[in-house]
Amino acid sequence: MHAPLLAPSLLAGDHANLAASARLVEDLRLSWLHCDIMDGHFVPNLSFSPETLAALRRAGSALFFDTHLMLDEPHRYIEAFAKAGANLISVHIEPTYEHVATLARIRALGCQNGIVLNPATPAAAIESLLPLVDLVLVMTVQPGFGGQSFRRDMLPKLRQIDQWRRERNLPFRLEVDGGIDLATAAECRAEGADTFVAGTSFFKAADRAQFAANFTKL
Ligand code: DX5
Ligand code: ZN
């Protein structure tokens, strides 16, 4: 079982000073930064671009960029994000494109890969891809916006994916994203999640160091 890992979500950071938001994560000795990329089609919102990641690298960030592509045509942007400094690139299963080839391409570009499921998508939709991925991201809200409520009905999906992971002895990380705070993270941890994206709860925490410390004990 992987140790619990907190991945603060840049979406909840200061959009007028993203480098400062990334630095604040790094100053807490956290290693991951979750970067949400939206196209206004797959989700009804816009966020960051490859240039955002590249600029954070130029500003000195050494964080592991966990890059969540919420795009209708993710395969068209893999190269740009790899070049911009992404360390992991995750793509949704729902749009139509060559999933297996895209996941392989992400690795060929030197990044880790991930597959993402919307709340309405059953675990079975990604079962055959499990041996091919470094991470599975189970959305615990409908993607597009921060600050939404955790969907407790996603817990059985986590349990199923974790069960397949254990039965097949697969190494991928199991990440949750949306409405995650210490309490909901603990519920997900009990079902096998090991990687916790936290936007609002992290950036709004009165004591972020304490918040981060609590996650290591999950
Ligand atoms: C939602 C994004 C999330 C978002 C989570 O579409 O994928 O990463 O930043 O925000 P919170 O933690 O506020 O629910
Ligand atoms: Zn995300």
Structure in words:
The protein is an alpha/beta fold. It is built from 8 helices and 8 strands. The chain has helices spanning 18-27, 50-58, 78-84, 99-108, 155-168, 182-190, 200-203, 208-216, and strands at residues 5-8, 32-38, 64-70, 88-92, 112-117, 135-139, 173-177, 195-198. Strand 6 (135-139), helix 5 and strand 7 (173-177) form a beta-alpha-beta unit. Helix 2 (50-58) runs parallel beside helix 3 (78-84). The radius of gyration is 16 Å and the shape is globular. The model has no long low-confidence stretch (mean pLDDT 98). Bound molecules: D-xylitol-5-phosphate and zinc ion. Zinc ion binds at residues 9, 34, 36, 68, 177, 197.
Describe the structure concisely for a colleague.
By secondary structure, this protein is α/β, with parallel strands linked by helices. The chain has helices at 18-27, 50-58, 78-84, 99-108, 155-168, 182-190, 200-203, 208-216; strands at 5-8, 32-38, 64-70, 88-92, 112-117, 135-139, 173-177, 195-198.
Q: Which SSEs are present, and which pair or pack?
A:
Layout: E1 5-8, H1 18-27, E2 32-38, H2 50-58, E3 64-70, H3 78-84, E4 88-92, H4 99-108, E5 112-117, E6 135-139, H5 155-168, E7 173-177, H6 182-190, E8 195-198, H7 200-203, H8 208-216
Parallel strand pairs: 1-8, 2-3, 3-4, 4-5, 5-6, 6-7, 7-8
Provide key terms for this protein.
218 residues; alpha/beta; TIM Barrel; eight-stranded parallel beta sheet; 8 helices; binds D-xylitol-5-phosphate; binds zinc ion
Kindly state the percentage of residues in helix.
25-40%
Q: What topology, given as strand order, has the largest sheet?
A: 1-8-7-6-5-4-3-2
Oligomer: single chain
Return residue spans where pLDDT drops below 50 for at least 5 consecutive residues: none
The number of helical elements comes to 8
CA gyration radius, whole angstroms: 16 Å
**CATH topological fold name:** TIM Barrel
Shape: globular
How many strands in all?
8
Q: H/E series, N to C?
A: EHEHEHEHEEHEHEHH
List each distinct ligand once.
D-xylitol-5-phosphate, zinc ion
Helical/strand content category: alpha/beta
Which CATH class applies here? Alpha Beta
Mean of pLDDT: 98
